[in-house]
Amino acid sequence: MLQSRRGFLIGAGSLLTAAFVTDARSFIRRNTRPLLASPDQVAETLHWYQNEVENTYHLSLGPWTGKPPPAPTWREFFVSESIAHQREADAERIWSQHLIGPEDYDQTMSRRYWSDLFDTKNSPSARAYHLLRKINVGPDRKSGHGPLLEFHEGDAHPGDNSLWVDAKDQLSLSLLQARLIDLNMPIKIVEGT
Question: Are 53 and 144 members of one domain?
Answer without folding.
Answer: yes
